[in-house]
Design goal:
Layout: H1 7-18, H2 65-77, H3 79-100, E1 105-117, E2 125-126, E3 132-145, H4 152-218, H5 224-258, H6 285-291, H7 293-313, E4 319-330, E5 342-351, H8 359-425, H9 431-465
Helix pairs in contact: 2-4, 3-4, 4-5, 4-7, 4-9, 7-8, 8-9
């Protein structure tokens, strides 16, 4: 038997013997605070089914077809989402690259040279100048493989997979953020449309009041002051209406960017506002940890950091490499495939760092510290998520109460305004009281509209804090 072939059983024995020697800590999901229920959800029973957010887009709960169309465009055209999609594709490519390192690399090489000399020689071809020339052709195929004895390559694959899963969660988070921002901007725009409508109605009422004051002034019943006060109040209301146009334009521009269009090419016609507020299913706290993409991303980054510790520790042990090659060389192409010109080689190499002034230990400590940092960030993300849900639940409950009270206040203020205006017509009160009653009625009505809008935007924020309709992506 030729000596080179004795490497096969030696190599096989080494791989079998050391295959179970992977180094580094086994990953365990970090512990998080145990919460059995939400404090702010006490005595609040949502009417929606528990799986409402798991069936289709969450924004459809608001029953606005135009919002449904705009939200669908976010996933396709929003550039932040597009960037997250590209980052996810990049992460998946990295997984494939790392996985390829587990397999042998095979190379094919070839070459041709022509050489000559000016002196005499017993071989070669004589040139016109008296020198000798010759051709040399080479063809070879070789391979190399690094057995994953200490688990370094496998941990690199697992770490890249965890990174890809974190990237998938980042993509879901980017979608949820853009869709939530779109819904909030859309509802704010519709609320401004409603504010504009009530200001237009108010302006008409102020114009009638101005006409009454003008008629009474012309009749000599009141002084010029009443007319001037009525004109001032009318002008202020008209200025407020003009200010709403600026705010609406800014929201329209923001929505255009969210759906991936230039603001100059996008417009939303004024439409009736639907101040519906769906009951959002809260679910149990453990469900939140499964649904929120930012929590999923933080947890996957802990797993990736854990694999980096094992990769760093593998540097304490020798690295092994197998190589093999076969080739031939000849002065003619036809002789390349002749058995007499074939050469081959097999090799096993090992390398061990004997001294590097503690660099390996420092790298291990650095990876352990990075893992501890990732764990702390994961736990902080979980705590912030619980806080976010509690905040939105408290806001949901308080705003529902506020809307009821605002509605009562607006109804009462409308009655006072009408009664004071009737008394002014009969000369029982001055116009100052009319202005005060009208200002109170307008303020109460605008506060009611704002409370209704706040309930809608809080519902969107609550859905976002619960993770929306996000599903965990399958492992790449």
């Amino acid at each position: 038997m030729r000596p080179g072939f004795t490497l096969y059983p030696i190599t096989a024995a080494l791989v079998v013997l050391l295959g179970g020697c992977a180094v580094g800590p086994t990953y365990q999901r970090p512990l998080t605070p145990e919460v059995s229920s939400y404090k702010e959800a006490e005595d609040w029973v949502p009417a929606a089914p528990a799986d409402a957010l798991e069936r289709g887009p969450w924004w459809s709960l608001f029953g606005d077809p135009l919002l449904d169309q705009l939200a669908a465009r976010v996933e396709v055209s929003n550039q932040n989402v597009a960037a997250a999609v590209a980052a996810y594709a990049q992460a998946r490519a990295l997984v494939r690259e790392q996985r390829a390192s587990l397999f042998p690399a095979v190379t094919l090489g070839g070459g041709a040279t022509r050489s000559g000399s000016s002196g005499s020689s017993s071989t070669g071809t004589t040139s016109s100048s008296g020198g000798r020339t010759g051709n040399n052709y080479q063809l070879s195929i070789g391979g190399s493989w690094e057995p994953d004895v200490w688990g370094r390559l496998g941990r690199a694959v697992d770490g890249a997979s965890a990174g890809a899963q974190a990237s998938a969660a980042d993509l879901a988070s980017a979608r949820l953020s853009a869709q939530g921002e779109l819904a909030i901007n859309y509802f704010s725009l519709r609320q401004l449309d409603a504010q504009k409508g009530l200001l237009e109605d108010t302006i008409k009422g102020y114009q009638r009041a101005l006409k009454i004051a003008q008629n009474r002034y012309n009749a000599g019943i009141v002084g010029k002051t009443d007319v001037l006060q009525a004109q001032t109040q009318l002008a202020n209301a008209q200025a407020d209406a003009a200010g709403l146009l600026r705010q609406r334009a800014q929201l329209e521009h923001a929505i255009a960017v969210l759906v991936g269009e230039a603001p100059g090419n996008f417009s939303l016609a004024r439409a009736a506002w639907k101040p519906s507020v769906p009951e959002v299913p809260v679910g149990v706290p453990s469900t939140l940890l499964q649904r929120r993409p930012d929590i999923a991303a933080a947890e996957r980054r802990v797993a990736a950091a854990n694999e980096q510790i094992g990769i760093a520790k593998s540097a304490y042990y020798p690295s092994l490499s197998l190589s093999a090659s076969a080739g031939s060389g000849a002065s003619r192409v036809a002789d390349l495939f002749s058995a007499s010109s074939t050469v081959w080689s097999l090799g096993l190499s090992a390398a061990q760092v004997l001294f590097n002034a503690g660099a390996t230990g420092a790298r291990v400590e650095g990876k352990e510290a990075a893992h501890a940092q990732a764990v702390a960030r994961y736990r902080q993300t979980v705590l912030a998520a619980f806080q976010d849900v509690e905040d939105q639940l408290a806001a949901t409950r308080v705003l529902a109460t506020q809307q009821t009270l605002r509605s009562q206040a607006s109804a009462s203020a409308d009655q006072v305004e009408q009664q004071v205006l009737n008394r002014y017509r009969s000369g029982q009160v001055g116009y100052t009281e009319v202005i005060a009653a009208q200002a109170t009625a307008l303020s109460a009505l605008r506060a009611l509209v704002q409370a209704m809008a706040d309930r809608q935007t809080t519902a969107v924020a609550l859905i976002q804090s619960l993770g929306g309709g996000w599903h965990a992506e399958p492992s790449p």
